[in-house]
Amino acid sequence: MAQKDYYKILGVDKSASQEDIKKAYRKLAMKYHPDHSSGSKENEEKFKEISEAYAVLSDPEKRKQYDTYGDEDFRQRYSQDDIFRDVDLGDILREFGFGGGGGGSFFSFGGGRGRSGQKGRFSFDPESMFGFGDAAGGRQQQGMEAKGRDVETELPLTLQEIATGVTKTVSVQTPSGKTETLTVKIPKGLIDGKKVRLAGRGQPSPYGGPSGDMYIRSKIVADRVFSNEGFDIYVNRDIRLTEALLGTSVTVPTVDGGQINMKIPPGAQPKSKLRVAGRGLPHMRGSGRGDMYVVVNVKMPKKLSKKQKELVDSLAETGL
């Protein structure tokens, strides 16, 4: 799936204010709106693209998630349905001066045929246009049976399991009330909040249609050695005061079960972070990994021997 840069799509900087984003969307909507364009398929696709970008960037929480995790991971967290939920583009475009009746997420434009069949109107319905929800493909009108409800369950995973991938057993309840054990292959990179889909393992359809899906959402278990921020891994490494002053070489464990040797430079400060590129958690899809950060913890002696105290006193006299 091609990467999407919502800021580039709207032609704004990442520091753009909500007002800047709204103005940019208005300008592009005026250009690609069916009332002002030829009504070509290319313009329709462009209109869909800018509407999706606006739906994300105009929502502070969605924008924060997009900025934090990037396009690929954002779209693993948010479906098209999620992106347009609670976004009323009809109200927005009416505010911009376009025609359109009806509430909710549906509204009409001049230039085509609306849902009601009224000529001279163009219908924009995010559900049918983007292929989600009950309106997608005219499901109700075509008599297709409704799908059962999706279900979601949480699965505790260690950072080591997320780094390497793992096979887990999951207990689920069948429609008859029995408990069934499933063997599920968990891919690498399933960090907090990401999901694995098990098709047809959700609730049965009450109308005879296909069953819903089950989504397994990861929950990272606290670890005494490693912690993470997204795909980046953090590990603490204790060193002595003299090692901090003079520099040293240390062995550090990696989250995938290996070890690396690294140099700590002279003058390392307490809580300073040394970056090891590409040794964090793997991305769920495609290539690439996060980074590992070694957090230096300088161990201060609680008590000095007589000789050590004399040496420290001598160092103090030199201005150290």
UniProtKB/TrEMBL annotation:
UniProt keywords, alphabetically: Chaperone, DNA-binding, Metal-binding, Repeat, Zinc, Zinc-finger
GO molecular function term, any single one: zinc ion binding
One GO term (biological process): protein refolding
Domain J intervals: 5-70
Gene3D superfamilies assigned to the protein according to its UniProt record, in alphabetical order: DnaJ domain (1.10.287.110), Urease metallochaperone UreE, N-terminal domain (2.60.260.20)
Regions annotated as coiled coil: none
Cellular component aspect of the GO annotation: cytoplasm
InterPro entries: DnaJ_C, DnaJ_domain, DnaJ_domain_CS, HSP40/DnaJ_pept-bd, J_dom_sf
Name of the protein in its database record: Curved DNA-binding protein
